[in-house]
Design brief:
Strand content: 5-15%
Distance between the termini: 42 Å
Order of helices and strands: HHEHHEHEHEEEHHEHEHH
CATH superfamily: Thiamin diphosphate (ThDP)-binding fold, Pyr/PP domains
Shape: globular
Length: 302
Amino acid sequence: MKRKSETSMTYEESMALKLRLWQMEINEELKKKRYKVPVHLGLGTEALVVGVISTIQRGDNLLLTHRNAAYNLALAEDPRSVVREYEGSKHGLAFGQLGSMNLSNPDAGVVYSSSILANNLSVACGFAYSQRLAKLDNFTVALTGDGAIEEGAFYEGLVFAKSHQLPLVIVVDNNDYSMASTTSERRCHINLSQFCGSIGVKLLELSTNDVQSYVTALKGARHVVLASNGPLVVEVKTTLLNQHAGPTPGWPTDPMNVDILRGLVICEDASDPIFVIREKYGVEVFADIETKLVSARMNLVL
């Protein structure tokens, strides 16, 4: 099979690589305890992040969780403004006032971020309801996780969204962890497909970690929601390749021992979306791209 060339890499794939690099840069600074706030990175979620941000259009709403770093880095006009925010600088994205877990950027569509588990889902219903009342050709996306679907806000919000036919997509980032416990350690199995089906809400499941397929699927989800006048749930299986929030007390020692000097691929299998990109283009082409990116790695943290 003919090897793909560097020039054939898509914009979305390039963004995924940049997100991996920027997050690894921040991770190195977290080791030094540089920042004034805890930072919840999303190493391993790059395909999902790029899929979501590629779907958002002007007038749409994006509501995030405490793990919003990758989304804000991707959407900020200058990703260094996100780092400045973590430092509490007046030059930060929110002038040093929001920190990390509540960092929003309305100009880029990030209308709300919440540090409270499942809190953003109820707020998302309000945003989507306003779009429905105004008869706008826009939709709302709310990110949540496998821990948050245990909360009443998830069930009540989805029932409300279905009852009022809201243009809402709830994206469940299922990485099997909430703080330091796996799903099986803390609760019984939740059959998301059966729950969604019981109230007539469609469920889309993604698990390949392929950037382009996620972009296509999530753009399709936007079309479905706007065409059907109703909510949709997207469950994405991810593997979090970093600790919960830097050197978090009580969190097990970082099993991946993430180190930027070892390159952008952290895990040598499809659980790592950057590995998926490397497999697509080949080791030599990927190495050339990686070298060019890493050579400029200090731009983010200066």
